[in-house]
Amino acid sequence: MNTKQIEFILELAKTRNFNKAAENLCVSQPTMTYQIKSAEKEIGFEIFDRSGKGAVLTPAGSQFAGQLKSIYASLRSAIEQGQNFSRSVKNDIRIAMPIRSAVYFLPEAIRRFSSRYPDISITPSFDWYGCKESFLKGEQDILFAMDFEMKRVPDITRHHLFDSRFFLITDRNDPLSRQAKVTSADLAGRTLMVGGGSPPVLRAIQNRVVSEGKVTYFNSRDHDTTLTNVAAGRGVCIAPDFLNDHCEEFCWTPFDTAETIPCSLYTHKNEKRKAVKDFIKILQDFYR
C-alpha cells in the first residue's frame, strides 16, 4: 500500500462520499474508486460499505483506519524531516520538553547555534506527559526536566540550567498584581488553586499556605485548567516561573518563599557530539 492509497482511505473515511473525497484530493472519482478497491484487494478485507448514499467504514475498516491515521502522521513527519535533511542539514539535535515556555531562551539559542553550525538543525518537541519517555527510549538527544524527576535514572548526564522560582498568578487587574512581592498573609480570604500535577516542593508550599487557615482551596486538574479558573476569577495559584508563557494575559508576581525547583538539561551518557555540548553551553550562557 502506498502513501496515496492511505491518503485516499483517510479522506473517504472523513467525507463518506467518493465524489467529495475525490474533489478534496483533486483527483477523479474513478481514480478514487480504483485506489480504494486496489487497497482492499491488497489487505484482504473491505474497508468501506458502499451504498447509494456514500461509503461508511466497516467494523474492520474502522479499526484499520484508526491505526492508519497514526501511521500516516508519523510517515508524513518522517518524510518532512527527510526532505529537510536532503536539502541542507547533515545532522539533527532533538530536544524534548514538556511545554514551550520551559526553555524561554530556546529560540535565541537556536539562532546563535545556527550561525556556528548552519548544517545542523535543532528539532524541539513538546509533550507534557511523554517527553521523558521519548528521551529514555532514545528518540530524543536532550531532555529538559525538573531534577527530582531524574534522580534515579541511570546512564544520563545532567547539565544544570536554572533554579525555577515561584510566582503568584493572578488576573492583571487583581490588587495583588501591583505588589513587588506576595506573601502568604496577602492571600487571606482568597481561593488558592492546588494540585494539578504539582511537583513535591510546590505541594509543600501549597499545604503550608492552606494550613495557615487564611485561604480556601480548590483542586485543579492541570495547569491549563488552573489558568482557566484564574481567568474566570475563581482563584489564584502559585507556580514555578518556567511555566510563564509571557502572553501578558496574567500577572506573575514573585511569591515570598526560599524554595526553588532545580531544572536541567539531560543527555545520554554515551552522547559525545561536540555540537550537542556547544548547544547546551549556549543555553547555559543565556540563563547565566
From TrEMBL:
Q: Which domain of life is it from?
A: Bacteria
Taxonomically, what lineage is the organism?
Bacteria, Pseudomonadati, Pseudomonadota, Betaproteobacteria, Burkholderiales
Its GO CC terms are: protein-DNA complex
Question: Which species is the source of this protein?
Answer: Mesosutterella multiformis
The entry sums up its family as follows: Belongs to the LysR transcriptional regulatory family.
Name the Gene3D superfamilies for this protein: 3.40.190.290, Winged helix-like DNA-binding domain superfamily/Winged helix DNA-binding domain (1.10.10.10)
Query: Which InterPro entries does its entry note?
Result: LysR_HTH_N, LysR_subst-bd, WH-like_DNA-bd_sf, WH_DNA-bd_sf
Task: Enumerate the UniProt keywords alphabetically.
Answer: DNA-binding, Transcription, Transcription regulation
Identify the residues that the record assigns to the HTH lysR-type domain, covering every copy. Answer: 1-58
- What is the official name of this protein in its record? HTH lysR-type domain-containing protein
What PANTHER family has UniProt attached to this entry?
HCA OPERON TRANSCRIPTIONAL ACTIVATOR HCAR, TRANSCRIPTIONAL DUAL REGULATOR HCAR-RELATED
A GO molecular function term, named singly, is: DNA-binding transcription factor activity
Pfam assignment, any one: LysR_substrate
Q: Kindly indicate whether the keyword Transcription belongs to this entry.
A: yes
